[in-house]
Every structure is written in structure tokens, then in C-alpha cells.
Amino acid sequence: MSNEQADATAQIESVQEVDRIRDIIFGPQMRDYDQRFQIVRRDLERLQQELDRLAERLAEQDTTQAKRLQEQRQEMRRADDDLRDELRQATQTLTNDKVDRAALGELFIELGTHLKTGGFLVDLLKDLGEKKQG
Q: Is 0.90 surpassed by the pTM of this model?
């Protein structure tokens, strides 16, 4: 063996000796730290999976709520349209059923004239009934 080989072998043995001494001194602590890191790593992975699952559920709920909101908006539009139609019908009915102002004014003038001339209300009603039929 040459001197270089002997030095290399001595160095390897000294490195191995240092590793063995390090293992003796720090071995239990390093194994404890390694176990703790493994536990923390597993917990982090579990928490990440839980977070992913919760994010997925939240996205599903968001989609569901968006659909419900859209349905509510459509229902509100239908109800609004129905209400507007009902209001238009009521307005049309009132417009058709109300008494014409000009006719009502003439009726009051005729009533006033009839009362001034000394006529009776019964006679006026009879005259109006005849006008309506004629």
C-alpha cells in the first residue's frame, strides 16, 4: 500500500469514527427530531387535505347559492310581471267603469234646473229612466 492509500483509508476511518461518535452523542435527539418532523409533516398533509375538501365544499355551496339566487330573481320577475298585469287590468276596469265627467256634469245641471223649477226628485228619476231606455 502506498502512503496515499493509507492516508485515504485513515481519513475514511476517521470520518466513520466521527459519524459513530456523533451518533452516540446526538443520535437519540436526532431520532426524536426526525419523529417529530414526521408527525408534523403528516399533520400538515392531513390539514392540507381537509383544507382542500373544505374549499371544494365551499365551491359547491357557492354554485348552489348562485342557482338559488338566479331562481329567486326569476320568481321575482314573474311576480313583478303578474302584479303589473293585475294593475293594468284594474286600471282598465276603473277606466271603463267610471262615469264620464261631462255626463255627470250635465246630470247635475239637469238636477239643479229641475229642483229650481219646483219639480220632484221622483219625476227627475222617471225622466232619466225614460232617456236611458229611449
A: no
